[in-house]
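Pasting two entries for a bug report.
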Amino acid sequence: MRSSAISSHGADLRAVALIFYLFAIPGTAFFAASPADARMRIETGRDLRDACAVLVEHALNPEPPTPRLARYCRQYLAGYFESLRVLHDNHGGEGIYGPSGDDPYACLNLDGPRGFDQLAARVVRTSEWQPDLLDGDALALARKAFADRPPC
């Protein structure tokens, strides 16, 4: 004899199907981000200048949350200086900015500690003085902004 009640196995399958149906459509939209929502990459001098200009502006009125572009500028600058340190430590500082002894940053045009907003302001100012660097690599703009200390 068959019972008119739904078996427990069938009820479990229906519950799983209902949960899948409820979350499958919105979940697909969540994981398939549009190009506008995709993470920006800093590739050109213009990308770096735009991101750092947002950081400089945010530093004047640091209301949370920190804008996305300001965070990208910080990440780029942190990666730039960390790369210099790693190259100096692993390769004796050769071919980066000249011999710098024990200090990986001795040849950089920085006197004393600086905050990210100050470094970003230097990038923005350099981009204004050297507009030809905006269409090149972001690295060229960063190098020009921080590496003008002779004789390095």
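Entry 2 (this is the one that rendered wrong in the viewer):
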Amino acid sequence: MTSTTSLSGPSDTQTVYTTPARSDFILTGLCVTPTVSGGVRLDVAGFGGIAHLGTLGDNGCYTFSEGVLLPRDSAITCSTSAGASPGSYFCTISGFE
């Protein structure tokens, strides 16, 4: 499955997906707008930070080759930094139950 959320401007946090309450969820990929000042951070409630992409030197995508098992019934959020310019950005995750 994939799920996408939109972000706009500095210090914006949006939930991109909430893991299932009754089954495991394995995160396999993340893609973000590759040109966000300060990048985009991916966090999981009860787990913490997973990745920070979209800064100079990366292409905005990352594959978790072994996958990351995430806690059940947890919000997965994407956030821009305080230094992000006003604009329209995206954050897309992929994974499976």
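Dev reply: Rendering is fixed now. As a check, the viewer should reflect this: Strands lie at 2-7, 13-18, 25-32, 40-44, 48-53, 61-70, 75-80, 89-96.
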